[in-house]
Amino acid sequence: MVAIQVKPRLSIYLKQRICQLRLIHSRKPFSIDKILNQVSLEAWDPLPSRGTVQNIVHNLDQVKSEKKFLDGQFMWANLSMSGVPWDSGEVVLRCNKEFDLLARNMKEKFGYTNYFTNRLANWCWKIFLASQDLVFTEVLKLAWYYAEEDSLNDLIELGVLSPKEKPSFFDSNNHDIRFFNGLLTYKPWSSSEALEEFVASVPDSIPFPNNPNWINYAYCLGVTPQTGTNFNAFNRNKVIDFPPPELLDKSGNQKWRERLKVNFGIG
Hints:
267 residues; two-stranded antiparallel ribbon; 1% strand
C-alpha cells in the first residue's frame, strides 16, 4: 500500500506576506519568482509552490481597491495619502529611521530587504499619539503588530484571504489586538501602579494574547493565563521591552529571547 503524502497547508500569515510583497512597488510589482526568492530568504516553512504564489497573486491583482496603496512602500511626498497629517511628519520620519537601521541589519545578516510601508507609517503615528512616553523603537515594534493585523483584516475584507483562518481586526476574539489595546490604555511600563492595574485587569478586561512572544511578555509582567495575577515573583526593574517581530528584527528577537531566559527562566 502506497502512503499518500498530504501537502501541509500554508499559514494565513505566509499568504498575507505574499500579498504584501506583491504590493510593495505598485508601478513595478514583484514577480512570482522574486516573491518566491524573498519568502525563501525569510525562511518560511513550508515554502509555497510557484503555482500557489501565482494563484494568490492572481486573486490579489483582480481586486480594485485604494486600500492596496497602504501596503506600498512609504514615500515622504505621499505622507498625507498614508493618513498622517503633515504636522506629525517628524514622528513618522523618526520611526522610518529606526526601521531603516533594522532593515540594513537584516539585509547584511540574512540577505533580504524589508520595507517601511504607508500602513506602518500610519500606525506609528497612531501609537505615538496614544503613548508619547514610548521611545521610537518601541513605537515601531507595537505599530508593526497593529499594521500586520490591519493588513490581514483588509485582505480578508477584500476577499483575497479566508475569514475562517483568523479573527478580524475588530472581532472580540482577536485577543492580540485587545491585549495591545490594554497596553496602550494602562501603560504598564510607566509606573509600578500602572503595572499593577494592568496585571489586575487580565483576563477580565484584557484577554491573554495568543502570539507566543506576547504570551511571554505578559508572563514577564506578572500575568499567567492560569491564575491571573502572580505579582510577588516579579521585579519591577526587570520589566522587559516589547518583543521585536522576527521578520522586522530577527537578531533582536533572538537577543530578546535570551534575556527572557536570563531574567525570567523562560525558554
